[in-house]
Amino acid sequence: MSEILKNHIRKFVNLSEEEFAAVLSFFRTAEVAKKENLLTEGQICGSNYFVLKGCLRKFFINDKGIEQTTEFAIENWWITDHISFEHQTKSEFYIQAVEPSIILMIDRDSQERLLELHPKMERYFRFIYQRAYAAAQMRIKYLFDLSKEESYHAFYSKYPEFVQRIPQYLLASFLGFTPEYLSELRKKKRS
Amino acid sequence: MSEILKNHIRKFVNLSEEEFAAVLSFFRTAEVAKKENLLTEGQICGSNYFVLKGCLRKFFINDKGIEQTTEFAIENWWITDHISFEHQTKSEFYIQAVEPSIILMIDRDSQERLLELHPKMERYFRFIYQRAYAAAQMRIKYLFDLSKEESYHAFYSKYPEFVQRIPQYLLASFLGFTPEYLSELRKKKRS
């Protein structure tokens, strides 16, 4: 199953079998049950997570007690609270499994040693963060630019399979809707 | 003036004088007049910009013809349209000087060669993107979580000097306000 990470790394850097075995030794595999929390608000985020199978999400709980989803991670995606992970400060977020998931996790000290010992991984993570940052910038543009209805259609046309895969109340939360409003939009789309 | 970049790189990686001279040879310096555009919507974003002096901003023009600012860059900050820069696709953004500015610029091919020849710079850019991504994630959280008034106070308490420095209509645009609403908030804060 760790082949998934190997193939992902090899999209960006050349890595021999021996090098990958060494890289992999910094990670541990974990199975996460649906709705299990990997991180809870107030904790220090100890790990960076790579999804081998399943789906995780990051959310915070707002003043009204409502869960606001800010990010999803499916196969081949990384997820963590970067501020808490890098600075070892208390997190404002939760990270939770949306589906039963299998993940690779690496703690901060291990990630630092990995990068020191395997500089090729600097290049890999540089690409990962560069693309994640670019995606976050587009998300910010959409949050300003698109109406609620437009943002649903944009997300649907970009990630049709993902829209089918995740529970609709979570999609609504990610897009900043109520589940009722999303349900109306879906009816409209079908008709 | 290029010392500013040297010192910034040295916050993250060790770099000798000789290495820095080699790194610097990939960049060119440019002076930008106030309100001059470095990038216009529809162009391919050719360069990544590092601010030595002054202030740049990134914005797009929405359906109503209004400029929506999504990002600022002052001294020691990088700015580009990462999607357009990486994939050489047409940009949806403008990058413009808010103040008369002095910048270092590097085009995409040069940046790739720089990273190939100076792997230490992979580590530098990995940090740059990791932190930029973390900041973008917090911005997304604030866009969902804070009222307009709260977001003004949060920004003011985090960047008081910057709030004093930039034109208020641009700050309003960045926070998603009208200039009139920002003016009201400022009066309230003073009273």
Automatic annotation (TrEMBL), chains A, B:
Annotated CDD domains: CAP_ED (cd00038)
Gene3D superfamilies the record matches: Jelly Rolls
Domain Cyclic nucleotide-binding intervals: 11-115
Leader sequence residues: none
Entry superkingdom: Bacteria
Stated name of the protein: Crp/Fnr family transcriptional regulator
Taxonomic classification: Bacteria, Pseudomonadati, Bacteroidota, Cytophagia, Cytophagales
